[in-house]
Amino acid sequence: MLTLLLIVIAVVGLLIIMRREAGAASALALLGVLGLVGLLFDANFIGFVLLLGAIAVAVTGLPAFRRQWLTPRIFNIFKKVAPKVSATERTALEAGSVSWDGELFSGKPQWGKLLNYKDEGLTEDEQAFLDNQCAKAAGMCNAWDIAQERADLPQQLWDHLKKEGFFGMIIPKEYGGLGFSAKAQSMVLQKLSANETLMVTVGVPNSLGPGELLLKYGTQEQKDHYLPRLADGREIPCFGLTGPRAGSDATSLPDTGVVCKQTIDGEEVLGVRLNFEKRWITLAPIATVVGLAFRLFDPEKLLSSEEDRGITLALIPRDTQGMDIGRRHHPIGSPFMNGPIKGVNVFVPLDTIIGGQDMIGQGWRMLVECLSIGRCITLPSGATGTARYALGWSGGFTRVRRQFNVPVAEMEGVQEPLARMASLAYISQATVYQTANLIDHGEKPAVPSAILKSQLTEFQRVLLGDAMDVHGGKAVTLGPRNYLGIGYSANPVAITVEGANIMTRNLMIFGQGAIRCHPYVLDELAAKDANDIEAFDKAFFSHAGLIFGNAARAFTMGLGFGKESVPFDAPAAAYAQDITRLSAAFGLCADAAMASLGSALKKREMLSARLGDVLSNLYLASMVIKQWQTNEKVEGEDALLHYSCRFLLHRAEQAFVEIFDNLPNRALGKVLNAVVMPTGRRWDKPHDDLARDIAKRVSTHSALRTKLLYNTWDTDDGEQPNPLARYNALLVDYDRAEVIYRTVNKAYAKGELPQTALHPEARVEAAFEKGLISEEETVFMREFEKRVLEMLTVDDFAYDAFATNKDTLIDHNARTAAPIHQPIERVE
Questions:
Q1: Which one, of 204, 214, 212, 205, lies nearest residue 232 by Cα?
Q2: What is the DSSP letter of 197?
Q3: Three-state SS for 188?
Q4: CA distances, 601 to each of 77, 595, 619, 655 (Å)
Q5: Distance CA 674, CA 281 (A)
Q6: Do residue 385 and residue 347 come from a single domain?
Q7: In terms of domains, do 319 and 437 share one?
Q8: Which of 68, 83, 101 is the last residue before a domain boundary?
Q9: Element (H, E) at 465
Q10: Separation of alpha carbons 617 and 427, rounded Å
Q11: What is the DSSP string of 566-592?
């Protein structure tokens, strides 16, 4: 009995010590005391075992002992197996900052830190800009007109964008810009996502480009000259980074600049001779100034003793001799300005280098530091805005589209994608807003930028597919009335640019995060590079304590014991507690993967991707519950919270299962499975009752629908018709119409109306004649059905409308000179 008691006390005590990361001294004291108790009370075997355990802890865990024999051996092994970090990788790792992503990597996230990022909301100027200038811009757009008729935005829209400072959102007011917060920039791009070409046109100059680079690194002279001109649209910028042989691997630039001298107007000028070929450059066809990334060489050593000076950035006027610019690419689904830029022997003076000579060779660092913010905002905001519009359109359409005498929104086959769309829009909106709030507090979230870019654009892909499905023929028939089809076809652009999603998911999220966000890995690598064994000892054994701590936390919380206290109200508290549990499990699995695979983990991209999936889903879920906690709730929002959190945590657990099943060390996979999921998986997919409730609310005039569509373009007073505003107006009237539908359809089913009254309009008129509905109801339904039919109608065109070369047109119905089949003459 005493033996069993000592075992139980030892196991429970060690788990508590491990959870608290209390250190070797605490474990030594526990095992030593229990061992002595065993020897004193005749439990000799267990007492002896416990004392042996205490000795093992002492020689391996106490610094005075381990540094004599253990640390040097581990250090030598670590130097052999640790991944080599290239200079470009180190630059990427050092870019940006670590905030909530680091807490999730720690396995013991401190929720108070996340909640301490207070949200001050938008300023009056920012909200007014959304309500007025943004609404006007959106109201000038028709997707068909822009994509098929013009292949451009209307001139009056370009003038409006320049006049109102859309291209200067990130530029401070002292330079003539708007000086908007990150949250305001995100909300502007979400509103402009009513048209994808408009969103891209405004988003790119405010993301990775000359404006941000000049703000952070430009000389004062460059700022004074360019920033006011960029802010008011006198200059249209583009940035040339990618090319035929440098896409995702942007560091392998084949474009060169050579330091040289050239005589200009009789004066010898020191500068750079450039040769480059860029493509996929947004705004290039109309740009007046080109930001350019290239590899700088100084063979004559005119600037320094180094010949290869590294990646450098310059700002080049459009009319510079030798630069070929103006041709266009044809991006799928959307005609936003995009094209190639070439240059042969283009000479520019040294003062075109962004930041001057001091920033020579710093181009890669400059780019990744800017990208850590820009990638958090532009494409994620565009994806979020698209999600909200697609949800609004789909909810409205499925409510007014009737089949089998009921709205299709009442059919469960439609309710399932509607609920999924609502959830993805809700998650996206919370994530992009709360991450922008981190930026407004001074963070530069490098790893979250990769999470947002890849995850939210993938959500957009799923959501647009769902929207196409529920619209059916309405969305697959292109024309001025089709508000969805062109945006659907343009979705691959967001998937591909600013770091293709395949690369971002498989290489960047965990590959960068494992080193950048981990509490100790970066210190261990630094100690290795410095050959500092004392620093390594401190980092490594702190790391070991974290591993034991995460194992204990994941296991005990998996059993339902020791749930952490979290500063959330119900129902978010339960999700926060499980994010904490899965964070500990993630930290444990990340360390297990790195320890078991070492540098080979770089090549195990599928495994790295699944680890990244866990981190991504935990980050998204954290942003959702933070938004829930800090914002005012509306009726029905709790269902959306439950659906969204269950969806994300189910995906996180699925990624864990796939990690366990695919670790090369099968025994390690089974052990991790037992520790992380001792009672099995906890989260199912969201239940059908949640889907039904959410679908009903987003397809009717409800508080939840109103909240999800807040700050979208929802007024019908623009130059172009607004389908969202029209659906919203129909939903306001829908309850009244539904009562009349039921009366009329019931009468028809009973034979009280003529069987020839097949159209809704005919049944309404017949019901009025029979006295089943009043004249007021009849007038209302005439107008209501007219508005419904307008939203259901698709476009048709002249037979030859789509042939750009009319000479190739085949007239399939032309009459021939003689019948194809001649009548057979009878022979008498």
A1: 205
A2: H
A3: helix
A4: 17, 9, 22, 17
A5: 50
A6: no
A7: no
A8: 68
A9: helix 446-471
A10: 10
A11: -S--TTHHHHHHHHHHHHHHHHHHHHH
Count up the domains in the chain and report the number.
Answer: 4
What pLDDT, in 10s, does the model give residues 660-705? Answer: 999 999 999 999 999 999 999 999 999 999 999 999 999 999 999 9
Alpha-carbon distance of 166 to 185, in angstroms, equals 10
pLDDT value, residue 196: 94
Residue tagged active-site, from 21, 498, 564, 765: 498
- CATH number, position 650: 1.20.140.10
3-state secondary structure of 345: strand
Mean pLDDT across the chain: 92
pLDDT exceeds cutoff 50 at 307: yes
Question: What is the residue whose two structure tokens read 């519950």?
Answer: 625
121-155 per-position pLDDT tens digit? 999 999 999 999 999 999 999 999 999 999 999 99
Residue 769 among the catalytic residues? no
Place of tokens 């979290």: 566
Q: 222: number of CA atoms within 13 Å, CB side?
A: 24
Q: Decide: residue 368, CB within 10 A, 0-12 exposed, 13-18 middle, 19+ buried.
A: buried
* pLDDT tens digits for range 148-174: 999 999 999 999 999 999 999 999 999
What count of other Cβ atoms lies within 10 Å of the Cβ of residue 52?
Answer: 12
Model pLDDT for residues 286-296, shown as the tens digit of each residue: 999 999 999 99
Using DSSP's 3-state secondary structure scheme, residue 194 falls into coil
Render 90-151 in DSSP notation, one character per residue. HHHHHSSB-SHHHHHHHTS--HHHHHTS------HHHHHHIIIIIHHHHTT--HHIIIIIIS
For the chain, give the number of residues.
828
Q: Token pair for residue 632?
A: 């005012």
Alpha-carbon gap, residue 394 to 193, rounded angstroms: 16
Q: Which of 148, 136, 134, 140 is nearest to 485 (CA)?
A: 148
Token code pair at residue 343: 């240059």
Those residues whose C-beta lies under 8 Å from the C-beta of residue 155, and which sit 6 or more positions away, are none
The set of residues, in sequence order, having a beta carbon less than 8 Å from that of 70 and lying 6+ positions away, is: 59, 60
Helices (H) and strands (E) in the chain, counts: 33, 9
Q: Are residues 580 and 671 in the same domain?
A: yes
Reply yes or no on whether the pLDDT at 328 is more than 90.
yes
Q: Which two tokens stand for residue 449?
A: 């930028």
Say which range, 246-255, 321-330, 759-768, has the weakest mean pLDDT: 246-255
Q: Rounded distance, CA 781 to CA 55, Å?
A: 87
| Side chain identity at residue 571, one-letter code | P
CATH number of the domain that 250 lies in? 2.40.110.10
Full-model pTM: 0.93
DSSP line for 543-558: HHHHHHHHHHHHHHHH
Structure-token match 């409800």, residue found: 702
String of b and e for 671-704 (b: at least 16 CB within 10 Å)? ebbebbbeeeeebeebeeebbbbbbbbbbbbbeb
Structure tokens at 516: 């950048």
Q: Is residue 271 within 8 Å of 348, Cβ to Cβ?
A: yes
Alpha-carbon distance 5 to 15, whole Å?
Answer: 15
Torsion of the alpha carbons at 249, 250, 256 and 258, rounded to the nearest 10: -120
Output the CA angle 722-724-728, nearest 5 degrees: 120
- Using alpha carbons, select from 738, 654, 639 the residue that is nearest to residue 697: 639
398 and 499 housed in the same domain: yes
Tell me the backbone φ, ψ of residue 235, rounded to 5 degrees. -115, 130
Q: Hunting for tokens 């943004």 — which residue is that?
A: 134
Burial of 16 (0-12, 13-18, 19+ CB in 10 A): middle
| Residue 496, domain extent | 92-117+377-699
315 vs 351: CA distance, rounded Å: 9
How many Cα atoms occupy the beta-carbon half-sphere of 226 within 13 Å? 28
Q: Report DSSP letters for 757-772, one per residue.
A: --SHHHHHHHHHHTTS
